[in-house]
Design brief:
Two copies of one chain form a homodimer. Chain A is α+β, with helices and mostly antiparallel strands and 202 residues long. Chain A contains seven helices and four strands; from the N terminus they run βαβαββααααα. Chain A has a four-stranded mixed β-sheet, with helices on one face. Chains A and B meet through α3, α4 and α5 of A and α3, α4 and α5 of B.
């Protein structure tokens, strides 16, 4: 199996941290996102949607989308369980995963695209929209701060993929100057707990 | 159990179609999204993120996010299987579900928010961003048209939640004038197949 990824991208780290929790090592092939390595004919023959990361199985089968790759390894190596065990756990982890994605990962990603100029050779940055997204990301942090007053992890008592999504996005968000300030007491407690895991070094 | 939903919203229909496939009937409580029914203190005590749909279990436990609600019922009623059976099927359905969401549902939703004026009392519409999203949605349809040349459903041979996401979003997309034109031959074949299911009436 091979993993095509761009190491600095937050989705790549999300998958790496997940794989580290599962003790899975994969051959990694770096794609130069900034240089358009995802837009080549060869890469698009693997993923027509031109996104990284992409997992290529030994028979050539392709799995793209970070969470799809994680889910594949959750099925192959169920321990430690990161998507939940009971119906309710699975639903609540899915809920927090999606809240983290829709409320934070997406706004942070769009703010980066529209405010940093990183991809300005292939898109029309919309500064006003980027700034709107930064506000949305802050709104999410406030809601999460309240939630973590009475929850150890995003989905309750157990560490899950939702925490991986949140940690890796929060670390990436520094590039658009979103950081945990002193008023985020519960989030900071949670951050230290999750960033202290060995897998967070991945 | 109670389902708080806004019947005309595409996410609500997505959940209803999923539940119809599973033959599950729930008590439904209509939330007036346009009138701010999701912004009341009472509703936010159920879902601080102020989104519909929300599932309330008999013990008061809350599950929000459409796909989290669907996953809960997939676990309770595994037949018919809509999230996949093997590791590979689960990963491929997750991949197509996310491609449909990121490539089509999100752009269509944002184009609606930014171009229709529906929520202009509580947001700053950004027309240029909305129009950019309409283009992105069309780009996705072209990629999906190619994929459906050699696949019956989004994730291959089997109907799945990814098809539900795509159908309900495509029907909703008419409000921003995105429709299947004559050049989408494969998509039209797929549309007739999926829209012909009894659950599509939900």
């Amino acid at each position: 199996m091979k993993l095509y990824e761009t190491k600095v991208a937050p989705n790549a780290r999300r998958v790496r941290m997940f794989l580290a929790e599962k003790n899975v090592n994969l051959e990694s092939i770096e794609i130069d996102l900034k240089g358009g390595g995802n837009l080549t004919k060869e890469f698009k023959s693997k993923n027509p949607f031109a996104k990284v990361p992409v997992l290529e199985l030994d028979d050539g089968t392709i799995i793209s989308e970070s969470v799809a790759i994680c889910r594949y390894f959750e099925e192959l190596y169920p321990t430690p369980c990161l998507f939940g065990e009971t119906a309710l756990q699975k639903a609540q982890i899915e809920m927090w995963q999606r809240r983290a994605e829709l409320g934070f990962l997406l706004p942070v990603g769009m703010a980066f695209q529209h405010c940093s100029g990183f991809f300005k050779d292939r898109m029309t940055p919309n500064q006003a929209w980027g700034e709107d997204c930064i506000e949305k990301a802050h709104d999410y942090l406030k809601l999460l701060e309240n939630h973590l007053a009475s929850n150890t992890y995003l989905a309750g008592d157990n560490f899950s993929i939702a925490d991986i999504t949140m940690l890796t996005t929060l670390d990436f968000a520094k590039v658009i100057d979103i950081r945990l300030s002193i008023e985020y007491e519960n989030l900071s407690r949670w951050y230290d707990l999750v960033a202290g895991r060995e897998s967070a070094q991945a």
